[in-house]
Design a protein that fits this description.
Helix content: over 70%
Strand content: under 5%
Shape: flat
Largest sheet: 2 strands, antiparallel
Order of helices and strands: HEEHHHHHHHHHHHHH
Structural class: mainly alpha
Mean pLDDT: 79
Number of helices: 14
Length: 394
């Protein structure tokens, strides 16, 4: 990584950077020894200077007037606005100055990364703020859903562009957003399960409906606790600081490698997804475990968000549509798995035979939805694979 000093070194005729000279010699070269004659002369001058100081001390001399400050020369605007030309000012040591994002200099430094990541981050941050109030109140479950999606997009976009960004700043932002996303995720999971159980309760009829309502009440209590936790986090000053940092990153993305190729980054995420799927079925065959299918869905999300960063979609548009369909199938599978596991846990905790019977009927529905999703999965993957190869192999 280039230091600020290295950026300011002037290249020689061969294109190599010339080091600044120190004490009359080039940096990195030892200083030559001072000849003996010069040393003797220096000693004599020191003795004379000491004598003159003694005489001056015996004479009262009026204090010299303070020197007039030299007027500062005006700094051109194009220089003042250039981080490369002003780097290190205000610091005791220019090499210790904090890292600066690559400046936007059209024609000299590519701006594709900054011009792409900035707007999508800005939109995601705007969505977080737009659905904050609704998530606090809990009137519409879509507010929590959309706020959670926005946090997920922030993390996914930063991860997809991470090779081109300042990794320290990127990882810190992703970590801070992850905590908020986790709290929203707890509420969202309960929202989905409660909504589904209300539908099932209406279909079952008494006495199963009443028994199921007791389980729903347990989930409602957990959702209230989750929302209390969310409000506490949103009221914390760290949340306001996080929004400020995200808005700053959107206004001036922390680009470290402006020459990075977004198409290559998106292709890397696609190949990661493809390798994960191949490894999954090589290990488990045609019927992989539920958790492994959920992991594959996460890889699909990352590939999708990375492809969304491309300005010129072209054949990528078909890829995005195919990935969205794959995520829908795997998402239905995951929702059924989560609800089934949670119902089994609630029945064990309640020790109510009636609740067990009602939950058993709902679990049967979950099992059927899982089978339907697994049946749709091969065709959905085949379309995504064909679109991915077309988009990134050419």
């Amino acid at each position: 990584m280039y230091t600020q000093a290295a950026l300011h070194e002037r290249p020689d005729g061969n294109g190599r950077a010339q080091r600044r000279k120190t004490n009359g010699s080039a940096a990195g070269q030892p200083a030559t020894a001072v000849p003996a004659a010069k040393a003797a002369k220096a000693a004599k001058e020191t003795t004379v200077a000491a004598a003159a100081t003694t005489v001056a001390a015996a004479t009262t001399v009026a204090p010299a007037a303070p020197a007039k400050p030299v007027a500062e020369l005006p700094v051109p605007a194009e220089v003042a606005d250039d981080p490369l030309l002003t780097a290190g000012q205000g610091h005791e040591h220019p090499l210790l100055a904090p890292p600066r994002p690559a400046p936007r200099r059209p024609g000299l430094i590519p701006t594709d990364i900054a011009d792409t990541i900035g707007p999508v981050l800005g939109k995601a941050v705007a969505d977080i703020k737009a659905h904050e109030d609704g998530s606090r109140r809990g009137g519409d479950i879509e507010d929590v859903h959309k706020m959670r999606v926005a946090t997920r997009r922030v993390r996914a976009y930063l991860k997809a562009a991470r090779p081109a960004l300042d990794r320290t700043a990127t990882d810190r932002l992703r970590g801070d957003v992850a905590e908020l996303a986790g709290t929203l995720g707890v509420i969202r999971d309960n929202d989905v399960m409660i909504h589904r159980l209300h539908i099932e309760a209406g279909l079952l009829g008494d006495p199963d409906t009443g028994a199921l309502e007791h389980l729903i009440a347990r989930l409602e209590a957990e959702r209230v606790a989750g929302r209390d936790q969310l409000v506490s986090e949103l009221d914390d000053p760290s949340y306001t600081a996080l929004l400020g940092e995200l808005e700053e990153a959107a206004a001036q993305p922390p680009v470290a490698d402006p020459w990075a190729d977004l198409h290559e980054l998106a292709a890397d995420e696609w190949w990661t997804l493809e390798r994960a799927r191949r490894k999954l079925h090589r290990r488990f065959g045609k019927n992989p475990p539920n958790d492994e299918l959920h992991e594959l869905r996460i890889y699909g999300k990352r590939a999708r968000y990375a492809a969304e960063l491309l300005h010129d979609k072209g054949s990528v548009s078909t890829f995005l549509e195919a990935l969205a369909a794959l995520q829908e199938v795997l998402g239905d599978h995951q929702d059924a798995c989560v609800l089934e596991d949670r119902l089994r846990q609630l029945v064990d905790e309640s020790a109510d035979p009636r609740a067990g019977i009602a939950a058993g009927r709902v679990i049967q529905g979950c099992h059927e939805r899982r089978l339907a999703a697994r049946a749709a999965y091969p065709a959905a993957w085949k379309k995504a694979e064909a679109a991915g190869r077309k988009a990134f192999e050419s």
